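Supplementary Text 2. Reproducibility record for the structural model of the 289-residue chain.

All settings were left at their defaults, and a single model was retained for analysis rather than an ensemble. We include the record here because the model underlies the residue-level annotations in Supplementary Table 4.
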Amino acid sequence: MKITIAIPFYNAEEYLPDAIRSVFAQTFQDWELLLIDDGSTDSSLAIAKSVDDERVRVISDGKNKKLAARLNEVTQWAKHDYIVRMDADDLMMPNRIEKQLELFSKNDVDIVTTGVYSVLNNLEIVGVRGVNYKSVTFQDILTRKVGITHAALIAKKSWYERNKYDESLSIAQDLDLWLRTSKKNDLKVISIEEPLYIYREENNVTRRKLIRAYKNERNMIRKYGENRFHILLAKSYFKSLVVYLLDGMGKIDLLQKNRGKGVVSEEYISKFKEAITIIKNTKVKGLNA
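Retained model, structure tokens:
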């Protein structure tokens, strides 16, 4: 089984080197890595080009097409049958890919996702979140009963060939894709609770980004909501109100803390520290960072 790991990046010079190291630190090594520049104006592209390994391909056309377009292009560029998602400012636990591929071998699914460590930019753990499930329905996703961690997924290339991201959307392209595919019964996904992905979320928890996200959520509800339209809209407006109130009190950081379980087990903390040490000490030939 061979895989394609895809990391689109835009002005990610601060974090991209460790993202690359976490790929090289994987226990599963039969991969190709696509580093996809989306028109960066910092040194990100130079960092990507500095990697000296035949498994790594750097793709750059000088354009800023945004995430949805780049992810659709990955399907065209990928040489292998499984596509691994990862964001340029995040990290992977060293056994992430190995464990997710094991689940593909045991289950008839198109997508496998995992739990995450929610961390600040300095890698301080805020919490852990994740759930175990072996199937999801359209209603599960619409009502947010369960979520699919987008950046932590591995998907079959054949699934992506059937299902494209909507490039007209500037955010929440993943939610639109889950709703669209589940509605036509083409979303066979499982999730494991174990945190195998390290997710920097600090920059996502701002008033501007949260209000924008909830506005987009309401657009999705209007598009797909059917008979629960008004209840779901009311909940979404309430969440926006909470954001404004917390921001006014200078306590919006409470939302960051609320994204994960408040108490992280000693076992998870130990595994996290060990993983960070492994990643930081992983040598990547040529990497300029």
